[in-house]
Amino acid sequence: MCEMKFISFLIEDLKENKQLWKELLAEFVGTFFLLFVGLFSCLGGSVERIAFAFGLAVASMAQAVGHISGCHINPAITLGFLVVGEISILKGLFFIIMQCLGAVAGAGVVYLSLIDTLMGANLGVTSPAANLNAGQAVLIETLITFVLVLVVKAVSDVERIDIKGSAPLAVGLSITAGHLCAVPLTGASMNPARSFGAAVVQNSWDSHWVYWIGPNIGGILAGLLYRFCFKQSNPESI
Known about the structure:
transport, MIP_CS, Aquaporin_transptr, 238 residues
């Protein structure tokens, strides 16, 4: 009897691990294609081209793998869920590792595709504008990422019954809006993994810490605000 219980427990554990591996792979693939599409748009692209490339890339990936992992593909979003207890610490850590690996892989493929034609060109490395100090850059990254994570939290609220449109499109448009206003200022990272991938491939770390501090603060603040102020309640549970 005890052996049967143990076997049953083991099977359930294997099923859970299989699902976790699917989620981790989805985070890797999603972040890979975000960097692949986004960094190509940065080469000689206008602000509008960059904004729509990143926004539509996220919307596409959310449609493709959102049902598997939630398509965070961004450590700031993962932290927004982690800080309010909607994802475990261990799973959140694994998500962030896979996001960073996917970002490096995506940036690496772009770099290898263009290695003979770059000639010193900036392959989408984010850095503050010359007229901004570090504090201003952190503030801008905090605010634009706050908007992104707030939208993600809102469209993923399982208690909402009013969402009629496309949740992936809403998230993608929030990224497009952030890029349209902030690309000339900070490069509009909104995603530590996105900046990390480009920095690793080009070995460019100037002010890189800005793109971990700002977006992660924005993600945490948005997660807390939505959880404690805006999260919908099930009327039947009141």
